[in-house]
Design a protein that fits this description.
transmembrane; alpha+beta; membrane; 40% helix; 25 helices; UDP phosphatase activity; Nucleotidyltransferase, domain 5; single chain; seven-stranded mixed beta sheet; ATP-binding
């Protein structure tokens, strides 16, 4: 257990699965390294620690048993390359699936998740205590909230609120995400809207390194089916339904002259597959593409809880004076892959320039575009990307400006009173994020991924609170206390230990291989001190004191007096007493048995206790009765004679089974020097020695 904590998250999306490895200092170590503790744990990663493979795990719905060896194996092996071996068992593993798995039938979805969990437990040593928590399909709202955490964490809005003052006591940024199947929005409304729509907000609770809570009230919603791929399929389906008995369908969202085949459900048919479908022929008229893709927003749907944005879904009013959004995934790729709208960090999204660049590209003939692909005019893009970018651009523009209402920078004037903040330093690259929208992929060379938000939340949950009764880290409904739907990230405080601490920890934390050596070393030191430093009188006093302590200790001896016959016999036979005596003290050792029977008592004292708990024979029952103190003589100060007085609970529970006789009979036996008790004990010893597994293990002769 070193100074670093590690975490592994698999983002199981609709088009593929990507593994992310993160690390952060243990909270104790982080507090020692930082003077400013009112900040979140610093979670870091490296581009080498990320790997993505295609397709998504949702494609294994009909054959879930293949998801492990054919898909997950590569990702797990990649993660294990970067997590130290001695930290694997302490590293939590999460596989969180998104839109692709959400649209899978229930039975197939469950089968895939069960197989993922089983394979992960079988093939990795990662920490996976609860599959329901660690392997699941997360709602779009959760995905959006994690993304919001990641964006604000990297931009610095959490750690430096004064440096990110947007006005109106607001210092956080909005988050937009668009994948292949769904789109999400997350933002903290202004104070007025937050109060007006309090029931629609999610309460998020984090914890800084000093143990103080950070609370935010965030609105999050998702639009399933509004990702670029699902929107494209809906678009093609409407295009096919608009005309009948037609062999070719003109498509303004394809470059002029481009031809593709599609199935009836709008999916592209790969050339050479032999499947039949409909032919789409590109016309390359981008303005018409914008018009035909606009109805896909479904803004005409009834709004049951005003205000609403896309698809009739309620969303609090967005105050773009203080709500500045960053967009990731398709928002970034669609503006960067071909059009270079933000190829440089200091170039911001500009609607007017962006739309012009898209219009110029889509109006080109397909033959010219193919030549440009070969010459790498637009960088490393393939034909499929070039065919899809016109529709994707139209969809992005419609969602941003007609759906969400982001002002069109370059055409519409912005509020001149907005404070201009330059995000730089430890969090964020040196560029402005004060425009209504900015597409990003990385901030300070760290990818803005919702998986980072998940790990920030997990790392914060490992910080111990600074007060008793502090509320847990996590998120849920916006109500006081811990709501019924509150979700915890699963972390807990793990103390940091130095290398020296680790060496001692290994002795006492269950690494049994270290214990014998440690005990032998301690015993040698004690023996040296005993034989070299003590006078004869001190040795004698030490032996007597040790015998009394050992004779009185233990829950099983609670009915035993210090002067009892049983205690005297135990003191004579216990291993330390023999070790520290050289045989000259007759007061400590009273020989009452002949032919080495005292040595037999010593053997049982050393090894019998382990056997008692595992024996299911009648001998085991007899031994248990003998050592539990049921028949131990107790001194009566006023009587002066030791008598047997078993406890009421002992007699009531097992007295009849053990055949207890009246106390007077045992008193007579003790008066005769304990002969009956010793004889009975010797008989039990004789019967049990030959069958003792401890004797066989240590080579002790019967």
């Amino acid at each position: 257990m070193g100074k670093w904590n590690y975490g592994v998250v698999l983002d199981a999306g609709s088009s593929g699965t990507r593994v992310h490895v993160y690390r952060w200092l243990k909270s104790d170590k982080a507090r020692n390294n930082n003077t400013d503790l009112h900040k979140l744990p610093e979670v870091s990663t490296d581009k080498k620690w990320t790997k993505k493979i295609h397709p998504g795990i949702s494609t294994f719905g009909t054959h879930p048993h293949d998801v492990g060896p054919d898909h997950l194996d590569k990702l797990f092996k990649h993660a294990l390359k970067y997590v130290p071996k001695d930290e694997v068992a302490n590293t939590p593993l999460f596989l969180l699936a998104t839109a692709g798995m959400r649209i899978l039938p229930d039975l197939q979805r469950k089968s895939v998740l069960d197989e993922v969990c089983a394979y992960a437990k079988k093939s990795t040593g990662f920490q996976l205590p609860d599959c329901d928590l660690h392997v699941q399909v997360i709602p779009g709202e959760t995905e959006g909230l994690y993304g919001w955490i990641a964006a604000n964490y990297l931009l610095g809005g959490f750690d430096d609120p004064e440096g990110h003052d947007h006005g109106k006591d607001h210092h956080t940024y909005g988050f937009l995400d668009m994948g292949g199947a769904s789109a999400q929005i997350a933002f903290a409304p202004n104070a007025t809207e937050a109060e007006r729509h309090a029931d629609d907000l999610t309460l998020l609770r984090l914890r800084t390194l000093d143990g103080a809570p950070l609370e935010y009230k965030v609105f999050v919603t998702t639009w399933l089916g509004f990702g670029v791929n699902q929107a494209r399929q809906r678009y093609v389906t409407q295009l096919l339904e608009s005309s009948t008995d037609v062999k070719e369908y003109p498509d303004p969202c394809l470059p002029a002259g481009a031809v593709i085949m599609v199935s009836d459900d709008g999916k592209i048919i790969e050339s050479g597959s032999g499947k039949k479908g409909s032919k789409l022929v590109g016309t390359g008229v981008f303005s018409e593409c914008l018009t035909k893709s606009f109805p896909l927003l479904e803004k005409e749907k009834e709004c049951l809880d005003a205000p609403c944005l896309i698809n009739g879904q309620h969303t609090p009013a967005i105050d773009f004076d203080v709500n500045h959004f960053v967009g990731v995934s398709e928002y970034y790729h669609t503006t960067h892959e071909i059009f270079k709208m933000a190829a440089k960090d200091d170039k911001e999204y500009d609607f007017k320039n962006y739309q012009k660049a898209v219009d110029d590209f889509c109006s080109k003939s397909w033959k010219d575009i193919e030549k440009g692909i070969k010459n790498k005019t637009w960088g490393k893009i393939d034909e499929q990307t070039a065919q899809e970018v016109c529709f994707k651009s139209s969809w992005l523009i419609n969602v941003l400006h007609d759906g969400i209402g982001v002002p069109r920078v370059g055409l519409e004037d912005l509020n001149k009173n907005v404070t201009k903040v330059k995000v730089g330093g430890k969090h964020g690259s040196k560029k402005g994020f004060m425009n209504p929208f900015q597409a990003v992929n990385k901030i300070n060379d760290v990818e803005v991924s919702w998986t980072l938000g998940k790990m920030v939340l997990y790392a914060a949950s490992e910080v111990p609170p600074n007060a008793t009764g502090a509320l847990a880290v996590g998120f849920g409904a916006n109500v006081p206390g811990i709501p019924s739907d509150f979700q915890v990230p699963g972390g807990s405080h793990v103390p940091y230990m130095s290398q020296e601490d680790l060496e001692w920890h290994g002795i006492f934390s269950g690494d049994s291989r270290r214990i014998p050596g440690f005990m032998i070393f301690t015993l040698i030191v004690i023996m040296i001190c005993y034989f070299t430093c003590c006078t004869r009188e001190r040795k004698h006093a030490f032996r007597q004191k040790l015998g009394e302590i050992l004779g009185r200790g233990g829950a099983l001896n609670r009915h035993t007096g210090p002067g009892s016959a049983v205690q005297q016999r135990r003191r004579r036979s216990f291993f330390p007493g023999k070790l520290f005596s050289r045989g000259g003290n007759t007061q400590s050792y009273e020989r009452v048995m002949e032919d080495g029977e005292g040595a037999n008592d010593f053997e049982l004292g050393s090894f019998l206790s382990d056997d008692e708990g595992h024996s299911d024979s009648s001998e085991g029952s007899a031994r248990f009765g003998r050592t539990s103190g049921w028949a131990t003589p107790q001194f009566k100060p006023d009587a002066g004679t030791p008598t047997f007085e078993p406890s009421r609970a002992d007699v009531g529970a097992q007295g009849s089974a053990q055949g207890f006789t009246p106390p007077g009979v045992f008193a007579n036996a003790i008066d005769r020097g304990g002969l009956l008790s010793r004889t009975d004990s010797r008989e039990r010893v004789t019967r049990s020695r030959a069958a003792s597994p401890k004797r066989a293990k240590f080579g002790i002769d019967a």
